[in-house]
Amino acid sequence: MSNDGKRPLLLVVKPERQTSPRPQDFVEPVQEALFPSPNKALAVFVAVPEITENEFTVALESSRPTFVLELRACPRFDVGRLNRREAFQRFQNVNAQYVDVSSCAPSSGEIDVILTLRNVLAQLRVPGPLMFLLDSSSGDLADEITRTLVDVSAENWDICRVPSYQPLRPVAATR
Question: How far apart are the C-alpha atoms of 98 and 150, rounded to whole Å?
């Protein structure tokens, strides 16, 4: 068998590249240039185990969430030099209220957490921006939360994922 057509024999696919959040990712586009203000219809999904201390800080200080909603079964804040006390101090600095949704759920199952979140959001009347702390960046839970947000608030939400990933193009190797 020859490879006269120079078709790839091997396709190397590089992993997605993580991009760091920027402050302008979290503000209203119209206001960005003069007086940046938090986007009130912003939902920030943070995969805590996958981020750096700097990414956490930029996401928190730039989005300035009204509420930080904890959805992890075992909340930990040991990211870089960050610890629980320091994380709560940072929440206080941006006037964000921390709500441990997962501890209110009857179980750590996704369905129970989502149902509990729905009740919490209904009670809060969903003032944004909101930050959700997750165990991973897999989109299933974030997608379900987004559907819940839309159902509860009837608002169009802007979604930001931290860390965000930028897909890279596959590199084809030929002989």
Answer: 21
The Cα–Cα gap between 18 and 166 comes to 6
**Considering only CA atoms, which of 85, 37, 95 is closest in space to residue 65?**
95
Q: 13-23+38-173, which class in CATH? A: alpha beta
Distance CA 143, CA 7 (A): 38
Tokens of 169: 């193009």
CA dist 37 to 1, 32, 103, 108, Å?
A: 63, 7, 32, 35
**Cβ contacts of residue 96 below 8 Å, gap of 6+?**
60, 64, 65, 66, 67, 68, 131
3-state secondary structure of 175: coil
Report the predicted TM-score, pTM, of the whole model to 2 decimal places: 0.75
Q: Give the H or E element holding residue 12.
A: strand 10-12
Q: Are 43 and 128 in contact (CB under 8 A)?
A: yes
Which position has the higher pLDDT, 27 or 43? 43
In whole angstroms, give the CA distance from residue 107 to residue 63: 30
> Cα–Cα distance between 93 and 17 in angstroms, integer?
31
Over residues 32-70, the pLDDT tens digits come to 444 456 678 889 999 999 999 999 999 999 899 999 999
